Amino acid sequence: MPRLPLSLFWRARRVSPGAALLLPVCRDLPSALLEFGWIKQHVESEAKHDGVTKRARVDPDWVGHRVLSLCRRRGRDRWMLTVRPEPEAYSMYLAERLLQEAGGAEMASEKRTEMPALTVLDACTGTGCIALLLYAQLRKRVGVHVVGVDIASEAIRLAQDNAIRNGLDGTADEASLSFVQCNLFSNDWLADPLVQRLATTDHGLDVLVSNPPYISTDGFARETARSVRIFEPKLAQVPLNGDEDVFYHRLLDLAARLNARTVLYEVGSLAQAERVVAAALSGDQGDGLIEVEIWADSPDIPAPEERSVTVHGRVIPIRGSGYGRSVFLRRR
Ligand SMILES: C[S@@+](CC[C@H](N)C(=O)[O-])C[C@H]1O[C@@H](n2cnc3c(N)ncnc32)[C@H](O)[C@@H]1O
Questions:
Q1: Ligand 1 within 6 A of 183 CB?
Q2: Beta bridge partners of 140
Q3: What are the C-alpha distances in Å from 114 to residues 107, 111, 117, 175, 310?
Q4: Rounded distance, CA 290 to CA 146, Å?
Q5: What is the DSSP string of 89-154?
Q6: Its GO biological process terms (predicted)?
Q7: How many Å lie between the centroid of ligand 1 and the Cα of residue 151?
Q8: Which of 43, 81, 227, 298 is most buried when burial is the number of CB atoms within 10 A of its CB?
Q9: 282 Cα to the center of ligand 1, angstroms
Q10: Of 124, 182, 183, which is best to mutate to test ligand 1, by the most ligand atoms within 8 angstroms of its C-beta?
Q11: pLDDT class for 65, splitting at 50, 70, 90?
């Protein structure tokens, strides 16, 4: 991993000494400022310094104190994933887009149950933070059924614990959140009644979202943050066969099988985003894609200049500020 330039530390110190302390683990100034903001927001002032120092010592457990006071925890089995700002940013933005599309933002509460509930599958759910955020945001306005799936039993336990910690457990006719253990590459789990309920609506699955393992074996050794290498299971970062794109091919196949109307996949770089877009455009459903976008780290914050890439002759807008972080597809 390249060393950070000293000038960056000086710049960070001028903006916020606390954020400067977080630079070695966060790697860039916007992330350091964001994490420092969370720590400030959620920690009593006398404990603040302790929080920053703990995070600066690369303990990712600390960063979980945020929006829904979500999702960290070394589980009983010490299995854990770092909570990062990007999934929160794109999940919130996705929820907003879905509500706008459903007319949900203006929808009067008595109309809530008149429209069919949205169905959401979060593949490779990990801590469950994406599933939880979408569920929490959407159920305020529309009916919604969310299922998170993951291969690791520890992840499923962690996601369920996080649902309880955030008061998001329990089901009703028009809202439910569940977690199912499965290997995404097998087909057995598609017959699970909870998954079936998502896929067998009149219109198919509404949303397939995923933050899958997407780092190559080489990238993991050379570029992955130290805190991730130390604390996270490698299974969460690197696909077993070492091919960084293998999950996206499977996810595109699942999107077609489940008739997913909207998909959002986190990616590791703009180059990977372009490869995912290329695979989507050349797949069976490529012609039916009415929206194809790359979302940057903060999709809701406009970049100083409009950006785009061209893939298979189609201009793909890059929405928001920061690095290319996820691929958004919507079909007819
Ligand atoms: C990058 S992490 C997901 C992080 C999650 N979005 C979060 O923020 O907590 C990737 C997840 O994929 C899961 N995973 C790895 N291989 C899998 C497979 N074959 N099927 C299902 N899940 C898998 C890992 O257990 C891990 O929880």
A1: yes
A2: none
A3: 11, 5, 9, 13, 40
A4: 24
A5: HHHHHHHHHHHHHTTTTT--GGGGGGSPPEEEEEES-TTSHHHHHHHHHHTTTS-EEEEEEES-HH
A6: methylation
A7: 7
A8: 81
A9: 26
A10: 124
A11: very low
pLDDT confidence of residue 62: 35
pLDDT of 63 strictly over 50 = no
* Separation CA 235–CA 124 (nearest Å): 11
Whose structure tokens read 């929808």?
A: 107
CA 78 to ligand 1 centroid distance, Å: 16
Query: Can you give the pLDDT at residue 321?
Result: 93
Pairwise CA distance, residues 4 & 43, whole Å: 28
Residues 14-24: pLDDT tens digits?
A: 888 888 888 88
Task: Give the span between the Cα atoms of 103 and 97, in whole angstroms.
Answer: 10
Structure confidence by residue, pLDDT tens digits, 144-169: 999 999 999 989 998 898 888 778 88
- The percentage of residues in the chain with a pLDDT greater than 70, rounded to a whole number, is 83
Protein residue whose Cα sits closest to atom 27 of ligand 1:
126
30 vs 50 pLDDT, higher one: 30
Q: Are 319 and 295 in contact (CB under 8 A)?
A: yes
Q: How far apart are CA 256 and CA 120, in angstroms?
A: 15
Partners of residue 321 on adjacent β-strands: 298
| Backbone phi, psi, residue 312, to 5° | 45, 40
Does the CB atom of residue 251 touch ligand 1 within 6 A?
no
In the block, residue with structure tokens 């999940």: 91
For the entire predicted model, the pTM comes to 0.81
Residue type at position 20: A
For the domain spanning 85-266, the CATH number is 3.40.50.150
Q: Is residue 282 helix, strand or coil?
A: helix
Q: Kindly state if the Cβ of 87 falls inside 6 Å of ligand 1.
A: yes
Residue 214 CA: nearest ligand 1 atom is 1
Ligand 1 test: best mutation among 151, 195, 238, 267, most atoms within 8 Å of CB?
151
